[in-house]
Amino acid sequence: MQQSGNEMVGFGDDLVAPGIETRPVDTAAVFELQQSGNGEEGLAPAHTKDGSLDRYGKPAVRGRTGGWKSGLVLLVSQGLVTLAFYVLEASIVLFTKYVMRQTNAEAESTFSLWMGTVYLCSLVGGFLSDYLGRCLISIYAQVFLTAGFGLLSASAHALLKPHGCGVIGKLCDPHAPWKVSMFYISIYLIALGNGACESVLATFAADQFDEEDPAEKQSKTSFGWYFVIASNVGRLISVALLVYTESTGNWLPIFWISTGCVITALVFLLSLTRRYRRFKPSGSPIPRIAQVIVASWRNRNLQVPSRGEGLLYRGEWEIDGTRRKTDDLKFLDQAAINISITQVEEVKCILRLLPVWLCTIWSSVVFLQMPSLFTEQGDAMDRTILHFQVPPAGMIAFDIISTSTLIVFYDKLIVPLHIKLTKTQSKTVAELQRIGTGFVIAVVTMLCAGLVEQQRLKYSDGSTKEMSSLHILWQIPQYILMGASKAMVCVAEKEFFAAQTPDGLKSLEMILSFCCSALGGYMCHTILWAVTKITASNGEPGWVPPNLNDGHADRFFFLLAALTMLNLGLFVMFAYRYISISTQMRDGIEEMEVAP
Question: What CA–CA distances, in Å, run from 239 to 187, 189, 371?
Answer without folding.
Answer: 19, 23, 12
